[in-house]
Amino acid sequence: MSTLFDLAFYVTIPFWALMIFAPTWRWTRTVIGSPLVVLAPLAVWAVVAVPVLGAIWSLVTAPTLAALTTSIEDPAVLTALWAQIIAWDLFIGRWIYLDSRERGFSPLLMGPLLVGTILLSPVAVPIYFVLRAVLPVR
């Protein structure tokens, strides 16, 4: 299970690397332009989640803190949750990248924000909304 936990993030590294280190490269926009980039971590999610789908379904249809606390003690449930978070972060990062390119924001500004999105997307997204509000569109 540890390998799949790690794999959920490792399969996203090429996409993050393109957005952060090669944001103006023609192929970056082509690759990141496809929403299918999130399929890699979602494939890990599927492999892990299918055997524990009953537990996950119970958790999402009747969520409680106690149920979540108990559920994440199962490495498969926790790994599925991790893969889902990683896929969501990539989806958000993809949107930030594409939107910032359309607005002409500097890659030197966006690179650190995309790293922040990998680490703490709930902090990075509001920061990006502030940038959208104050920076001029080119």
TrEMBL record:
Pfam families for this protein: ABA4-like
InterPro entries hit by this protein: ABA4-like (IPR025461)
Protein name: DUF4281 domain-containing protein
Residues annotated as transmembrane: 7-25, 37-60, 80-97, 109-131
Keywords: Membrane, Transmembrane, Transmembrane helix
